[in-house]
Amino acid sequence: MKAEIITIGDELLIGQVVDTNAAWIANKLNLLGIDIHKIVSISDKKESIFKALEQVDKSTNLVILTGGLGPTNDDITKIALAEYFHVKLVMNNKVLEKIKTFVIKRNADLNERNKQQALVPENCTVIQNSIGTAPGMWFEDNRRIIISLPGVPFEMKEMMNNHILEELKKRHKNFYISHKNILIQGLAESKLAEILEEWEKNFPKDLSVAYLPSPGVIKLRITGKGKNRKYIEEQIENKVNALKNIIPDYICGFDEDKLEELLGKLLKEKKATVSVAESCTGGNIGRLITSVPGCSDYFKGGIIAYSNEIKENILNVNKRNIEIYGAVSKQVVEEMAKGILELFTTDFSIATSGIAGPTGGSKEKPVGTTWIAVAGKDKVITQKFVFGDQRDRNIQRASLTAINMLQKLILS
Amino acid sequence: MKAEIITIGDELLIGQVVDTNAAWIANKLNLLGIDIHKIVSISDKKESIFKALEQVDKSTNLVILTGGLGPTNDDITKIALAEYFHVKLVMNNKVLEKIKTFVIKRNADLNERNKQQALVPENCTVIQNSIGTAPGMWFEDNRRIIISLPGVPFEMKEMMNNHILEELKKRHKNFYISHKNILIQGLAESKLAEILEEWEKNFPKDLSVAYLPSPGVIKLRITGKGKNRKYIEEQIENKVNALKNIIPDYICGFDEDKLEELLGKLLKEKKATVSVAESCTGGNIGRLITSVPGCSDYFKGGIIAYSNEIKENILNVNKRNIEIYGAVSKQVVEEMAKGILELFTTDFSIATSGIAGPTGGSKEKPVGTTWIAVAGKDKVITQKFVFGDQRDRNIQRASLTAINMLQKLILS
After folding, report:
1. pLDDT over threshold 70, residue A284
2. Contact assignment for A300 to B310 by CB distance below 8 Å
3. Closest residue in A to B284 (Cα–Cα)
4. How does DSSP assign A155-188, residue by residue?
5. In what order do the strands lie in the sheet with B176-184?
6. Are residues B352 and B370 in contact, defined by beta-carbon separation less than 8 angstroms?
7. Chain A residues inside the 8 Å CB shell of B44
8. Out of B111, B133, B356, whose CB is closest to A194?
9. ipTM, 2 decimals?
10. Cβ <8 Å between B194 and A293
11. N or C: at which end does chain B have fewer Cβ atoms within 10 angstroms?
12. All domains of chain B in start order, with CATH
């Protein structure tokens, strides 16, 4: 099956909204072995929608559109699709009932705009929206399937997960595609490529590899495509095993693993608790840890010790050490890690102190200089890093590096 | 000028990376009045690049490509462009020198892959990369400009900001486009649309409006296009002023304002300090506040009080209140706000306690129930919200709502 994704909305073309829907849909289709050959973003004008539909490749047999189904006047997709198929819009009573229930549950009144959302082109099969008001629409003729979904990400996802993917799976059985992601921490991309030069040579012809760098982690993706599932899986496994021998110390996870989830799993296994003392990361490590549902089993909390005053008064960092070595130093970050461990009576702790930038650097401590400490009851590991010039990247790199350091300490 | 953006990379088509580059470039071009009519994402195969270039609209006179210029074997753009233009790749010594300097600064050795990055198609003008190794390339004939940039976001941005935008501005002077964003907090999208029905009618013909909802804030965007700058600006101003009269209490900012930046500005003006006591938001409010450079002027830090034990022992929340009312209650969140204000000796504070989900709800307190308190020296405002079912959205909505509540308290 060959697919194309069309995302609709002026907000995408003027760059006010990042198109996360396309990536999410692409990922889900890909897991079914459906080949996405193009993603197109267009304006929410009728003419743009017509043109995009006309320009769909002849051999494409699945088109998914998102956006333009809301209750406001700039939402035009439904009208455009009715015109495209030369059909009328008709009131769908089941949708209307759903909308009524939805609105009443939220203690609001049903208004005219809500009602209009129950109008759909008469040739479509309606996909019910259980968490919002705009219905999805499934069109199908002998050429292809066209599916129109809301642009609101969680409504679109709900429809994909509970209706569409299952239906598409039934229609697409002959082709196998598999990905394996290897997460790598602590190596620059070009250094990694150099180390892996031999490994990359003689790649089996059904397999390919890609480097996907992001702040703090490089994802190495191996993709295999073909009809023989077993053969593909074996080839991928061989390459992964070879990789484990080449860079054992830098592999920090696989596939959709997130460092914060891996740490959480490990802490649960050990029935251990953790706390954080964050200076330069400002709460971001806490945010990452608490992004994992169920984290209250192991996360007690932490101190965001942004000012030196808080480091001294709450975390019991020695004032003299701050004066002599500065707040961004081995001595201070170690005391922060020990301080929070004691104060919050946890088994493990993480502490950060750095110069996130864009200003505040010096010759000895340039912007990006970051000290990280991780502590258990009888050991502390402290390490210095010099990240880059960008505040947001530095914060994220420091956070993920710290989480990975604690994981290593627990496993050591 | 009519533009198209082509982003290259299998990672986009299989949904492993969200295309933030396209949005960023679109935004920048749009501010110059350049009309982006399509964004296309394609695979990093030579054939896909050829096809995409062939399918560019005849009337398009600017194409910006990103991606596929890295040091690894899956990076093919440069080779594809040389073939497309029927020219050779030649070594650019200036680029090679830059790469050498760059690599030496990082205490690494210059390897063969780094050197190959200095090869460019002989018909291009090189755009130097001051923060990375891959050069950008500017191609131009009598039909159009084609620009190829690295996919690494901060390298691409640096080249756009320091070279390309200035050059494009010189070539595009006759058309005016203007956007005004109004940020709205505390109203659902359909409710807002209902209130604004009259305001939306009789919109001047050169103006349009769009609703851009995100967790915690709805952005209302007014766009004006035309040749008469003064006229467009006046029309937009009239509509904004009308809006200020209709929903004065819900407007929380304009244009690229971020709530955390507005709060920071206000605190700086008042020479006041703030601290946070976060339960359900788990550090996210701290992260937002510290995402603003210079926040150390007003942010002392906070406590992530995820467990009740920490609420009691560190924040001095009355144990009896947690037993009687539960951790997610008016009483507890108020004590948290007061507790952190005192402990951190700040002028203002924010506290949150809620059920972020996906589990942990009850009939009385369903998932999404969140108490927020903001405090100054002599006043506390506490409010209950029932957000939705989604953990990440609940956390973000609670965080932005809390920041806005504090801003209102300070201004009241």
Report:
1. yes
2. yes
3. A287
4. HHHHHIIIIIHHHHHHT--S-EEEEEEEEE-S--
5. B207-214, B217-226, B176-184, B251-254
6. yes
7. 210
8. B111
9. 0.78
10. no
11. C
12. 2-170 (3.40.980.10), 176-254 (3.30.70.2860), 259-411 (3.90.950.20)
